[in-house]
Design brief:
heterotrimer; A mainly alpha (354); B alpha/beta (506); C mainly alpha (299); B: 506 residues; alpha/beta; Rossmann fold; C: mainly alpha
Chain lengths: 354, 506, 299
């Protein structure tokens, strides 16, 4: 246990240290830069609430990737699933009118279903044809953006001024829980979902099956589990989580769907999951860490004059350090139909811990 | 025999190689002379392939020395071994499927003209060597289209093309037809007559007696004897391989023929991965309380049989009936529910998840039959794991420690314990004590007997003849996917078994 | 009139295909040796950025191209070291390279040029050859395009006609067979990955100083992933990948031409991605990568 903790903190610390080096090379001051970053992310009610708002999205996207990792699947498509889920939530929020207390739940459900559908495509292709989910999810990301952009500029357009949907019903909106900020009930909801995901993995039969498949598809087969079905269900669940995250964005922040929704956090969700070693509880802390980075970056740029992209560099370094899996590769770009991962019996890099 | 006066071409002394705690080669002295065919025999796991891999530079010995023609050598790579004149034909052919025969043979020493591969020269070279050894092989054919015999020819060409002084063949006849085998031995004889040194590893004592000049027997990593063929016979070799005569087998409680049939296999046919028939019509009836043993050299259909029986591999014909229920096409989970269990020969890849703890491993295979619906029945897992720990007297058992932290023997005990819990009806035990120490093995035997006495039946597939004699009520011998014969343990001495296993005929 | 439009569309197709082709050829080389490179996108960005920086300081396109190639080689070396020697997860390493390169370029953009988002304009291929349009002009201006064609042919000949190419492919198909034939598996994997990096970076250089004359954030726009798609679509062969790039380039060009018509641009843009999924699911014949692709080699 302690060993794991050391590994988890070592990567980020080294990345931050190397980031200081980069700042120095750019003739900045690391102390001033990191100071401004922390000040911006944590130093005021406004800032802190923004950080928590950002954390919400990262939790959902991170859970999506982490859960897939635990099953031995590499879901790079969280962003596409998020976007599809968000659009579905927006459409339901604008066009479906039910009793007030039901509006929010059905929008969430729409987001989950949209994301689940998008995840299903990749899962099905993998289970049925052995098509690597690494490639298909990347492709599906682009297909998602393009489809969605087309739809909101055309058939689903709800505003004459911009390519976006109409504003969702007020009843479907999530309201700030701290007045004057953008922080909504989505944040505690995200925490609840993360804890639920942790419990689900640990205690339910389906979670057990998912974890077994993640460790060894072969052992799972010999234990009578239906590996293909588990793969499809996992991708759907993964997509649903990302979709709910997208729904939160729509319902809590933008109150509509437009292209501004996802400013490219796709890679960050992977970083969040890797840093958390795919543990859902760890995802909460990891999401917070990256939210601090993302949110504080603008302050860092404004106050310490260090470009905000430093944060991307730190993120990349963390992913790099997470790749050093000393015992072998778990994710294969190319697999044969429904069979075992490329290298059996080794410690999977992201299959994580309970 | 002039060979007796020829100095050794290749000699090794005190070669020792460890893999973790396993001593694969234990102070081995070995030599082979020019113009000699030297057979290396031993059971599975005796260390034969390891030694050859050391010779070929694939592995480096922990201790010991090697000499070629009196000069000390040390090979860190295959390239070095090849330059010293050693060629090796591996048991599992190392060919690039997508390449042609010509490309495979030339790989690493392609004839080239101005930087480009001279395909014609390469093909001509292939034809030349092929003609010499009377292979009929087309250089432009792609390897993946070739059958096993032809592939071995390509592998041989690959090696012979470099004109090696020393040729090593690892289980060369394992997958060949009788005719192909004859052809191969003709090749080996020509190699010997050319003045090369030939080492071949085999199980098949008949071949050894017909074709070798000298024989070295390995047992558990050590050289037991090196003798001239003239001083040997099959029984002597078999007993050297296997060890001091096993004590009189404990006769299990005689099963009366009135006991009901639990597992009825009839006409079972199973295809191998490459499409050829691995199991060609097996009939086997197991009664309640019976342990049916299956003996056979590796690769004679046991794996396909076990996989099809358990449900991991589809069968191509025949039927499997368990307790009156036809499970021939049933899914694995269905068979488990009906009481079928499987103790795997490969616990790490098929039986246990090493990163899970004992409780979760105890639930593998059963997790859906939890009483609590969709919640994992942790209490049941703990109970089961604790029972197993107690039954097998596992020291230092901690329910939350990952399986990885226990020794191999303990892991195996655990696997056996799990697969025999929950009142199974038929247990397939495939090499259940492979890689396990004597103490763990005997507690596993005890457990299997216990299970049989509850009215279940056990299908015991093993490569360990002692084990079969000790446990089984009867021993069936597999050869080329069919049953070559059936013996009772008292009559299953090594020579008889060896003959059935090696050639399918008593 | 109709003919000139067709020619224009084809010409633009070739231009659009060029950066893809470099990256795809880089992918083909490394994957044929068994190393998967998801980081093509990042390597393109790195090449694009470095080319602009070098051109800014040295006012020479040749030096700019060399600088880009060196950057690509370094990133390729990083991938090779982690994938081959450390046996790290190749996909995660590739992702890391993407994030690092894209972020690093954006960072340095601000640091070096002070203006976020885009660099100033620099010397580029598009201004070469003087004002009058002669053959020399076209040769110079599109030098990288001609070079791409040459590279494609060279890679093809190397892979399928030379001993080195046979060794490289053997390493990717069956590293154990290669090892026992005396081939140094690690050496080939390192070289192939480094070459892959160089080529991808050259593709990026074309984007920044070939087509235009600056670097802007996000200019790679997913081309690295389309290149990956082209590798699969082209069945891991250089000619196939080149063909796929031309195919994708054609649709890109078509999309520009049809902008005036009411065809939604997004539908055409989607085509490469949809086709790749179709290819990888095996609907267009069997999709067979080199057998040991992506698997770290343990002798």
């Amino acid at each position: 246990m302690r060993g794991r903790l050391i590994v988890r903190t070592f990567g980020p610390l080294l990345a931050i240290a190397l980031g200081s080096l980069v700042i120095l090379l750019a003739r900045g001051s690391p102390i001033a830069a990191y100071g401004a970053l922390l000040q911006g992310a944590l130093g005021s009610v406004q800032g802190f609430s923004e950080t928590l708002t950002q954390t919400t999205l990262f939790i959902f996207a991170g859970l999506s990737v982490a859960l897939a990792f635990r099953a031995g699947l590499f879901n790079i498509g969280a962003e596409g699933q998020l976007v599809v889920g968000a659009l579905c939530a927006a459409v339901v929020g604008t066009h479906v009118h039910v009793a007030k207390p039901l509006e929010v739940p059905i929008c969430f459900a729409a987001g989950a279903l949209g994301g689940a559908f998008w995840g299903f495509i990749a899962g099905f292709l993998r289970a049925r044809f052995g098509a690597s989910e690494v490639i298909t999810t990347i492709m599906l990301n682009y297909i998602a953006y393009l489809s969605v952009n087309y739809l909101v500029a055309g058939p689903l357009r709800g505003s004459p001024l911009a390519p976006e949907t109409a504003t969702i019903d007020t009843a479907a909106m999530l309201n700030p829980i701290i007045p004057g900020t953008r922080l909504t009930a989505a944040f505690p909801f995200a925490i609840v979902v993360a804890v639920a995901a942790w419990w689900w993995l640990k205690r339910t039969v389906s979670g057990f099956e998912l974890r077994t498949v993640g460790r060894s598809e072969r052992v799972a087969r010999y234990a009578g589990m239906s590996v293909q079905a588990i793969i499809v269900k996992t991708m759907m669940l993964s997509g649903a989580l990302a979709g709910i995250g997208g729904a939160c964005e729509v319902m809590g922040l933008l109150h509509r769907f437009n292209a501004q929704l996802s400013p490219g956090y796709g890679f960050t969700s992977i970083a969040v999951a890797l840093l958390a070693q795919s543990n859902p509880l760890g995802v909460i802390a990891s999401a917070f860490f990256f939210a601090v980075l993302a949110n504080g970056a603008l302050s860092m740029q404004a106050l310490a004059l260090v470009p905000k992209d430093l944060v991307s560099i730190i993120e990349g370094l963390i992913i790099l350090f997470a790749s050093a899996n000393w015992m072998g590769s778990q994710f294969a770009l190319h697999r044969s139909r429904g069979s075992e991962p490329a290298n059996e019996g080794d410690e999977p890099v992201a299959a994580g811990s309970t | 025999m002039s060979a007796a006066l020829t100095p050794a071409l290749l000699r090794c002394q005190s070669i020792t190689k460890r893999f973790g705690s396993v001593l694969a080669n234990d102070r081995i002295d070995f030599d082979v002379r020019a113009g000699e065919i030297h057979a290396l025999v031993g059971e599975n796991g005796a260390g034969k392939s390891t030694l050859m891999n050391v010779f070929y530079g694939v592995l480096q010995p922990d201790e010991g020395t090697m000499e070629i023609n009196g000069e000390q050598v040390r090979f860190a790579t295959c390239a070095q071994a090849m330059r010293a004149g050693i060629g090796m034909v591996f048991q599992h052919y190392l060919l690039v499927e997508r390449f042609s025969v010509g490309q495979n043979v030339a790989l690493g020493r392609e004839p080239s003209a101005r930087g480009f591969i001279d395909v014609q020269a390469a093909d001509a070279a292939v034809r030349q060597i092929a003609a010499r050894y009377r292979f009929s092989i087309e250089p432009s054919a792609t390897v993946e289209t070739l059958g096993v015999g032809a592939r071995q020819q390509v592998e041989l060409l690959r090696v012979l093309g470099r004109d090696p002084r020393i040729v090593i063949l690892d289980e060369p006849t394992a997958a060949l037809s009788p005719a192909e085998t004859e052809g191969l031995f003709e090749v080996m004889a020509r190699l010997r007559d050319d003045g090369r040194a030939v080492i071949f590893i085999t199980h098949k004592l008949k071949e050894v007696m017909r074709h070798s000049d000298r024989i070295t027997v390995l047992r558990r990593g050590r050289v037991v004897a090196t003798i001239d063929r003239t001083e040997a016979d099959e029984s002597k070799l078999a007993s050297l391989m296997i060890g001091p005569q096993a004590r009189a087998p404990q006769t299990s409680a005689a099963t009366s023929t009135a006991a009901p049939v639990v597992l009825n296999i009839s006409g079972l046919r199973v295809a191998r991965d490459d499409g050829s028939l691995g199991v060609a019509g097996i009939d086997l009836s197991c009664r309640a309380g019976e342990i049916a043993g299956i003996a056979g050299v590796e690769g004679n259909g046991q794996v396909e049989f076990a996989e099809a029986l358990y449900g991991v591999r589809p069968s191509a014909g025949g039927s499997v009936v368990l307790d009156g229920e036809d499970v021939t096409h049933a899914a694995l989970s269905r068979r488990r529910r009906a009481g079928l269990r499987y103790i795997s020969a490969d616990r790490q890849r098929e039986g246990l998840v090493l990163d899970f703890d004992a409780v979760e491993n105890a639930l593998l295979g059963d997790v859906r039959s939890s009483q609590h619906g969709s919640i994992v029945d942790v209490a049941l897992g703990q109970q089961r794991a604790a029972e197993i720990a107690e039954r097998f007297r596992i020291e230092g058992y901690r329910s939350r420690a990952p399986m990885r932290s226990y020794s191999g023997g303990t892991q195996q005990k655990f696997l056996v314990g799990r697969e025999t819990s929950g009142a199974p009806r038929a247990v397939i035990a495939f090499a259940p004590t492979r890689g396990v120490d004597v103490g763990a093995a005997s507690s596993i035997y005890e457990r299997l007997r216990q299970v049989a006495s509850t009215g279940a039946c056990i299908v015991l597939i093993s490569y360990d003849l002692d084990e079969l004699r000790e446990l089984a009520d009867r021993i069936v011998v597999f050869h080329n996917g069919s049953i070559a014969g059936e013996l009772t343990p008292e009559h299953a001495d090594d020579a008889t078994l060896g003959r059935l296993m090696g050639s399918g005929a008593a | 009139m109709g003919l000139s439009i067709v020619l224009a569309v084809l010409a633009i197709a070739v231009i659009k295909a060029t950066p893809l082709a470099y990256a795809a050829l880089g992918g083909v080389v490394s994957e044929n040796a068994g190393v998967v490179n998801i980081g093509l996108e990042g390597m393109m960005a790195a090449g694009a950025f470095t080319a602009v920086v070098a051109s800014f300081y040295f006012h020479s396109v040749v030096l700019a191209v060399i600088a880009a190639a060196l950057t690509g080689a370094m990133l390729g070396l990083l991938l090779a070291y982690l994938a081959v020697t450390q046996r790290a997860d190749q996909i995660i390493v590739g992702m890391a390279i993407n994030v690092l390169a894209l972020g690093g370029a954006a960072f340095m953009l601000s640091v070096l040029f002070g203006q976020p988002g885009a660099s100033p304009e620099v010397t580029s291929f598009s201004t070469l050859g003087g004002a009058t349009a002669t053959v020399m002009t076209y040769l110079q201006r599109y030098a990288l395009v001609w070079l791409a064609i040459i590279v494609c042919i060279v890679v093809h000949v190397f892979l399928y006609r030379t001993p080195g190419g046979l060794h490289l492919r053997a390493v990717g198909e069956s590293p154990h067979a290669a090892l026992t034939a005396g081939i140094n598996v690690a050496k080939y994997r390192y070289l192939a990955t480094i070459v892959g990096g160089v080529l991808a970076a050259l593709g990026g250089a074309y984007l920044s100083i070939g087509e235009v004359d600056l670097y802007s954030d996000g200019m790679v726009a997913g081309r690295g992933f389309i290149a990956l798609a082209a590798v699969i679509f082209g069945r891991w062969t250089p000619l196939g990948a080149m063909g796929a790039c031309l195919f994708f380039g054609f649709f890109s060009s078509l999309q520009i031409a049809l902008q005036r018509a009411n065809v939604p641009a997004q539908l055409l843009e989607m085509l490469p991605y949809v086709l790749t999924i179709v290819a990888i699911a095996g609907f267009i014949g069997r999709s067979r990568p080199p057998a040991a692709d992506g698997v770290p080699f343990t002798p």
